[in-house]
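Supplementary Methods. Inverse-folding protocol.

Structures were first reduced to a discrete structure-token string of length 124. This string, shown here, constituted the complete conditioning input.
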């Protein structure tokens, strides 16, 4: 997939994947300081996407190996992208309505069933 021509000039100064995702999504872009980035760079990056959801779709479309494997495994469905966008939409709905977000993870994060068993000779 070719790079977004409106995005390409702004990308070289982004130093980490976390920063580039935050900038692309927009939620972190407005309050985030990225080393070497200018206000003009941030404005150009923010203008590249109509909505934060568009940025998520762009990022997902930039993962061709995951897409190919999903489409092979799930009869042409890019399942990872669909599930991530479904979760994104559910989180946005939660924010809009003020109702708590219900995770799809089972077990949920920080569930005691996920912890390591205690070591026998561990210091107290």
């Amino acid at each position: 997939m070719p790079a977004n021509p409106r995005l390409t000039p702004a990308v070289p100064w982004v130093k980490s994947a976390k920063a580039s995702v935050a900038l692309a999504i927009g939620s972190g872009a407005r309050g985030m300081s990225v080393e070497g980035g200018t206000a003009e760079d941030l404005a150009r990056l923010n203008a590249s996407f109509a909505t934060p959801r568009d940025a998520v779709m762009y990022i997902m479309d930039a993962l061709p190996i995951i897409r190919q494997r999903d489409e092979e495994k799930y009869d042409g469905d890019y399942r990872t992208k669909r599930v991530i966008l479904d979760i994104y939409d559910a989180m946005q709905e939660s924010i809009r309505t003020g109702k708590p977000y219900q995770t799809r993870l089972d077990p949920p994060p920080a569930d005691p069933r996920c912890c390591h068993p205690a070591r026998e000779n561990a210091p107290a």
